[in-house]
């Protein structure tokens, strides 16, 4: 798999009191030959918080937040368990079809669907999206403006032609992304506001494998997920030789993120480096100063720590986001909001 992550964040004014944009996103992931991992996983996220989970091992759709049940009717989980079981079979068939189109046989392969919506509770603007990725690349995406599918790769053209011919289904998908999804998002935000609107301070640590290795600034346990982990050199923002990690979920509903700085021991002696962590909604900056290598050492990274992070991410979500999605122009179409009542739609057959 290309990577297991939840979101690629666009960080703005991190110290704003509350978020104006809310999101409801579903991720369906089918995989083949991935060791110790379910062949199908489905998760639902509200504002980056997992509220729904299903996998092919448990065969059950279950809530991950107490407030979800307040927004759901009594048959919600039975209905969604049935939907997920159907999607599981569809993904199993679809991944075999896509492998054939790419002239592939065995090996690790991942096919994913991401769909959902966003709502600005101040401006009232809404957006919707529905797209698929294969092995870390865009495969096909739905254009809400034209009610047509976009195929960025030749292997997806057959699927585009098939799905474009079903105009009724395409109209339903647009209606779901622009109306039903928004209605559910508003319900979830209302019932989960005590959780979704809270703030939790991060724990920040500096980690390093060896004196010649990059220094990792690791922030964890924070909420919301909007965070900036950056470096400063002698009091000025420093971006050279810095690698930024993704924001990942913890199993307690909080988040973690790392930033890696490559710096020589000599440079550390001559200059003052510090990691600065900013979490949206928390006015305080959280700062860790990188000590002189002769005066003190940062905490060494233990293999178990790295392994634990991977386990946490896999257990919580198991979601593969194709990294090139934002580079190919698959921008959610702007819509107006309205109301309806449904929780999803079966995934179409490739």
UniProtKB/TrEMBL annotation:
SUPFAM superfamilies: Immunoglobulin, MHC antigen-recognition domain
Domain of life: Eukaryota
GO biological process: immune response
InterPro entries according to UniProt: Ig-like_dom (IPR007110), Ig-like_dom_sf (IPR036179), Ig-like_fold (IPR013783), Ig_C1-set (IPR003597), MHC_class-I_related (IPR050208), MHC_I-like_Ag-recog (IPR011161), MHC_I-like_Ag-recog_sf (IPR037055), MHC_I/II-like_Ag-recog (IPR011162)
Region (Disordered): 247-266, 330-350
Record domain Ig-like: where: 202-278
Signal sequence, renumbered to the chain: 1-19
PROSITE patterns assigned: IG_LIKE
One Pfam family named in its UniProt record: C1-set
Transmembrane segments: 298-322
UniProt feature, compositional bias: Polar residues: 253-262, 333-343
Keywords of this entry: Glycoprotein, Membrane, Signal, Transmembrane, Transmembrane helix
One Gene Ontology cellular component: extracellular space
Family recorded in the similarity comment: Belongs to the MHC class I family.
Name under which the protein is recorded: MHC class I heavy chain
